[in-house]
Amino acid sequence: MTKRLITLLVLYATVTLTTVFITVPVGVGFFNFSDVAVVFSGLFIAYFFGKSKSSEILIAFLVAGLGAASADMFLGYGVFAPITLIAKGLEASMAYISYKKKGLIHLLILLSGGILMVATYFIGEAFFLKEIGGLEMAIGEVFPTNTIQLFGGLVGGRILFLVASKIIRKEEK
Questions:
Q1: How far is 40 from 78, CA to CA, in rounded Å?
Q2: How many CB atoms lie within 10 A of CB 162?
Q3: In sequence order, which residues have a C-beta less than 8 Å from that of residue 165 and are 6 or more positions away?
Q4: Per the omega criterion (within 30 degrees of 0), is the bond before 82 cis?
Q5: Which tens digits make up the pLDDT trace of 4-16?
Q6: Long-range contacts (CB closer than 8 Å, 24 or more residues apart) made by 144-149
Q7: What is the largest distance, in Å, between two alpha-carbon atoms of the chain?
Q8: Which CATH number does the domain 2-172 belong to among 1.10.1760.20, 2.40.110.10, 3.40.930.10, 3.40.50.150?
Q9: Rounded distance between C-alpha atoms, residue 77 and residue 73, angstroms
Q10: How confident is the model at residue 55, as a pLDDT?
Q11: Strand partners, 32
Q12: Which of 60, 81, 101, 172 is the most buried (most CB within 10 A)?
């Protein structure tokens, strides 16, 4: 139990710190590399826990979603935190689900997580953040910012996971 909790706390901190310290301000929000940590976290939780339980999907959702939402709060973008919680949580959940899949199916599920992230921000910004830009801002955020984060997270998170899991397997032998 302790090893599992520590792992989850480290992943939470990784998402939070990646979001806080690797950012580029853009308009009213910011471009960041949190999606790399989000995708990595979803894959790593599936690898580490490995039971494919719905409760573990929720854990992936909460670790990544709360980590990224905490960063929004810390950086002064608290208005985005509820949207971020859902967007990054969905992205991590889909990464978790993709873990045991192979080839194109794996990549399509990862891609669907990124699409859910972009769609969640679009809906949240268009309909719930009208006072700071609304639909116009939401359209402007889809490309390039959120689309770059989608593909950067998919590629970077997957590569980081492949490297980390290979290192862990070597150490376990």
A1: 24
A2: 12
A3: 44, 47
A4: no
A5: 999 999 999 999 9
A6: 145/26, 145/29, 145/31, 146/117, 146/118, 146/121, 146/122, 147/118, 148/31, 149/31, 149/32, 149/33, 149/34, 149/35, 149/114, 149/117
A7: 56
A8: 1.10.1760.20
A9: 6
A10: 92
A11: 23
A12: 60
Question: Model confidence over 137-172: pLDDT tens digits?
Answer: 899 888 888 998 999 999 999 999 999 999 999 988
- As a whole number of angstroms, the distance between CA 130 and CA 160 comes to 36
Rounded CA-CA distance 38/171 in Å is 24
Does residue 27 sit in helix, strand or coil?
coil
The tens digit of pLDDT for each residue in 99-116 reads 999 999 999 999 999 999
Count CB atoms within 10 A of the CB of residue 58: 13
Place of tokens 């599992």: 4
Task: Report the candidate in 122, 116, 162, 171 with the shortest Cα–Cα distance to residue 142.
Answer: 122
SS3 104: helix
Tokens of 35: 């999606």
pTM of the model: 0.94
* Tokens, residue 4: 């599992």
Ranges of each domain in the chain: 2-172
Question: Which residue is it, tokens 């899949």?
Answer: 101
Residue found under tokens 């998919």: 154
